[in-house]
Amino acid sequence: MEALKTTFPGPEAPEKMSILAIDDETSIRKLLNFTLKEEFQVIEKRNGMEAMIWLEDGNVPDLIVTDIEMPEMNGYTLVEILRNSGFYKEIPIIMLSAREKSEERIKCLELGADDYMIKPFNPHELKLRIARLMEHIKRYKYHA
Question: Which residues carry the post-translational modification 4-aspartylphosphate, per the record (predicted)?
Fold first, then answer.
């Protein structure tokens, strides 16, 4: 006879931190989702405009990964709006781009991005960069 298994309610599992992944290329969004879904809740949007609509509906991710070149609203404009907003300005942002020039990286950092990665990117490196930023978030929330 098989032993009865009894489950007792325990402490709730902590909710996964969320990442808003914004890119007009479906393959990049899917790669981001596949790479990050075990540790994070990944929300996918195709451009900055879709992302802003999602944010304005009251959603707030823990981190944003966004492309630069997108239709409707590019990554530069999105970062500028977020950094000038009282509500979203503290959300860490990682920019993804095929643009390799130093001037592009500098522009993104000056606009307020926290990090910049060149496409194609190494998924493991992205996870490490995200983990570093998320650790800063946890420390900030703990000390706040």
Answer: 67
Buried (b) or exposed (e) across 90-115, using 16+ Cβ within 10 A? ebbbbbbbebeeeebbebbeebebbb
**Claim: this prediction has a pTM higher than 0.70:** yes
Rounded to whole angstroms, how far apart are CA atoms 104 and 122? 19
Residue with tokens 């990286």: 105
Contact 98, 119 (CB under 8 A): yes
At position 55, the amino acid (one-letter code) is L
- What the chain holds in terms of domains, given with CATH numbers, is 17-143 (3.40.50.2300)
Q: What is the per-residue pLDDT across 36-95, written as a single tens digit (0 to 9) for each? A: 999 999 999 999 999 999 999 999 999 999 999 999 999 999 999 999 999 999 999 999
What Cα–Cα distance (Å) separates residue 107 from each residue in 102, 112, 124, 141, 144? 9, 9, 25, 28, 30
Total count of residues recorded for the chain = 144
Q: Taking the alpha carbons of 121, 134, 107, 68 in that order, is the dihedral positive or negative? A: positive
